[in-house]
Amino acid sequence: MNINHFLKIAEELGIKVKQVTDTVELLDECATVPFISRYRKEATGSLDEVQVASIRDRIQQLRDLDKRKEAILKSIQEQGKLSAELEEKINAAETMSILEDLYLPYKPKRRTKATIAREKGLEPLASMIFDQTSFDLDAEAEKYLDSEKEVNSIEEALQGARDIIAEWINENAELRKKMRDLFIEEGQFVSKVIPGKEEEAIKYKDYYDWTEPVKTAPSHRVLAMRRGEKELFLMLDSCPEELSAINLMDKLVLANEANSAVDQVKLAIRDCYKRLLKPSMETEVRLYTKKKADEEAIKVFAENLRQLLLAAPLGEKSVMAIDPGFRTGCKTVCLGPQGQLLSYDTIFPNEPQKKTVEAGATLRHLVEKYHVEAIAIGNGTASRETEAFVKSLGLPKQVIVTMVNESGASIYSASEVAREEFPEYDLTVRGAVSIGRRLMDPLAELVKIDPKSIGVGQYQHDVDQGALKNSLDDTVMSCVNGVGVEVNTASKQLLTYVSGLGPVLAQNIVTYRNENGPFKSRDQIRKVPRLGDKAFEQAAGFLRIRNAKNPLDSSAVHPERYELVEKMASDIGAKVTDLMSSEELRSKIILNNYVSETVGLPTLQDIMEELSKPGRDPRETFEVFNFQEGVNEISDLKVGMKLPGIITNITKFGAFVDIGVHQDGLVHLSHLADRYVNDPAEVVIVNQKVEVTVMEVDMPRKRIGLSMKSDPFAERGKAKQHGEKKRREEPEMEGDLAAKLAMLKGKFR
């Protein structure tokens, strides 16, 4: 273990070194992030999941850096060029960029201009010129003329020397570091449309002639410009002013005198920049900004996914689910309280068949037969029409009718998971089942779908797919373990995300359950094939067994602490069940009496909190939501309308809201609140119910502008008054001003 790594991580995260070392030790023993943050608080000093994950990721980065250092040192050593000074610099390198800069002069290269010049014997001439002392340049260069080596003129000799010097400059680690800083600090993204593609590239209109600083460009614009470039609609540059770069190189390389050698070095500097350094730096900076943009986009995606997964569940109710449609009808299923499929029908209440009488009779019959408590309607095509039809049937008031976001349901219905669950049914039935189960338990159903298909991402197909998968897997695992999993009803997919399990053990649990019946205790889980002590330790606290003989089996208390809880109960002459039901009894327990070398107050406090609400679902309570009646299509919208909506996606530039017209509207960052908002996540979350005002309806482009401000038109009124006053004061400017405003509106729209 490298103590310097622990010191570095502790400093970066603002925590103690011991917290880092103990956490890394647990991670190296294959403990998971949820397990460490929940059940090893004494070891970590109560670090949360984010901090534990940060330690995990950072120690891996530093270890990868160490591996690269070893490989580089070995390579240079084998070349016989490793000095003590160079070795010290390599070992001290704190980033991969600095490390690669140090290795660049020794890195095996393809045949370059400098290589060819060296083969012609011009390196001594290059060294003499690079010293930048005064000497007879032509006379010295003439000594290197050699027809056999194809050096036939003084200029050819000087050109070869400059090629070598350009490579030396390019390989200077200090210069590369400062140039990299310049590109990041002063670089400009310059985006232009490729001539002739203006119409084809209309979705990138904002970037036809766009410039902004590299260091402040937000992630969504970086990814948008890169996508436009990748699709061959945009040309994208990301360099600083050339003069600034050349001046920096001159300052670092040139001697403080004027002579012919200095003039040659100047030429080499300019050639180095254009041919070697600029392309290299631009590639690095583009990779750097892409990585930053990816991190931001992935962070937004992960947080949106967390909020979606933790949406309030309806719970174990009898549910009817309808996947609405026009021509092909509405696929209708009835599900039992555990999500089991009870029946399947297709009804045709909408155009063109319009069989409302038959459809109504079918639904009433199903509601009565299966004691339906809630009806879930997918929010896709024909959703509002189907919702209106269902509500017109006069069903019992206690039957909830609600819309469910069906993003990704079609992906699930065609997946191997769906085929395993419902091999005898087609895609349409599976899709309807998914809609119903999402209402009952969003988390349990959504884990079956690739998170990228759920519809809460921002440029998810453009970011680093490995990093995205890792982040989303972390998020799903965090949510699953935070809520807990009922081991006797959970699907293989849900069990896969439980701490310490994974696909193989998840399948083994399901197989064992099918062959032996429901688990009666947590301890019985040990009998699952290949589930050893380590896996049990990691998983047990997150697995629940309802109605088990030991009441703690349905709680988040870890089996390793059962004996401790039993002692607490015994010490006050009570049973564990009494502790779980009586706040008065729990108040008699003095936690300090139970502190030991392995159990501290954080764990004891967690145990007491869990005893007060054993196994209770931490998610919000479900609330019914209804869209505005009579507003079903974009054409129904009018500027100024106030409508209920649900946040469906959050980006760095605003939030998208479903208002029930089959096209989400955008609440721009500037319209999320009456106050200034820097980040949408400060004020909204996915699935949040909001009231919005319609600000703009662009029918051709199907764009809807919304506002969450209490008086969204106030600023417009002020601007209008200001404009009228301006025109009265400067009437001669009116026509010119209008033209300028029109131009600006077109540019920044």
UniProtKB/TrEMBL annotation:
PROSITE patterns xrefs: S1 (PS50126)
Region (Disordered): 708-736
Every S1 motif domain range: 640-709
Basic and acidic residues bias: start-end ranges: 712-730
The keyword Flavoprotein is annotated on this UniProt entry: no
Gene3D superfamilies in UniProt: Nucleic acid-binding proteins, RuvA domain 2-like, Tex N-terminal region-like, Tex RuvX-like domain-like, YqgF/RNase H-like domain
Coiled coil: 137-185
Keywords: Coiled coil
Protein known as: Tex family protein
